[in-house]
Amino acid sequence: MSANTARCPMGHGTTELPEQAESRPTHVGGVQHSGAKEVPVVNWLQPAQLLADPYGSYARLRTEAPVAWVPMLNKFLVTSYAGCHEIEQDQSIFSANVSGSTMNRAIGAHPMLRKDDPEHATDRLAVNPVLRPKNIKEAWAEVFARNADIYLDELEDVGPDNADLNRDYAAPLAAKNLGDLVGLKDVDVQTVRTWSHDFIAGIGNVLDDPEIWRRCEASTEQADALINELIPHYQLHPNASMLSAWANSGLPDANIAANVKLSISGGMNEPQHMVTNIVWALSNHPDQREQVLADPTRWTAVFDEAVRWLSPIGMYPRETTVDTVLEGVRIPAGSGIAVVVAAANHDPAQFGENAADFDISRPKKSHLAFGAGVHLCAGHWAAKSAIGQIAVPKAYERFPGLRIEESRPGQWAGWVFRGLTSLPVTWN
User: Fold this and answer.
1) What is the CATH number of the domain that holds 100?
2) Residues of the signal sequence (predicted)?
């Protein structure tokens, strides 16, 4: 494949990418629509740019074409806060039940996140009580704290000269918390990590890598075998876990399995990245680190600002059910849409001129890191508790001076899902 040709992620051949192409107006599908702008087409966007650091591209898209057709992705990209928020408010027009869903293929099923109401609400209703703030505090905060201590001990054993915060703390802790909360009885941490990584890789597999699909199929087979054993177990021995709630909800086993695998995919990736993102952000803003260490009540603000500034979920898909107009751009029915919430969360129109900065004193504004509307992330209270109130504060309590080790560079990866896959740290 030449440097100027990109394979269409939906398998529809190739798309030419001119050397000096800019955002330019055209018509999608050859149909003109009165009362709306001609559709901007963006040919300058490149996968390497997004993987290295997408935020420069996002800023340009918001300025030049906040709703644009991107041939490389075979989708409309929406990068403004207003556009992304509008999408989340109307599932009748912007459906989560998208065609050719990589999520459905990755986990071998149709989970609630790819359904609209009332089907979505039916699947979610059973597990909502498990994930409410009061139940998280009463049933799970002690578990999260105990797990954090286990892996802080392991981080300490590695020592300040060799520690990697993701490898030695964030990743295994997120996997352990996930396994406990979901109810993956007798499954070791490494297996949970493998399943989650494989599912996430598949969900983000917009370039259709066959090896990623092979890994997904293997992990799906293993997870399904376990879930089939655990459903009858929890029907006889219910507990406070998510799987137990679903097993006793009357939902079909297929729905339960789909949503458990959905929880495995997202329930580790985002918490894991939030641990490293917060430490990375505070290390690069030592004045703000000192503020929160002097006043622990500010940890909530730290979590909220970090999840806005470095959104672990960078983009998710929707599909139009009818012809519609978004931000003045006419979008035909059946169009794929990429809701780029990482870009929306840096929009100056919502967050002010310093939207691209990390600022724990920022006036409170709604962000989209956990989505919005009916698809607001069901686990966001669990994440705030496990990570924002427990995992990160306890790490700073245990290791005074916890900070990035500059002599050992970290590694960022992804744009659909983005985070630090390696973060060497040290402490005093």
Assistant:
1) 1.10.630.10
2) none
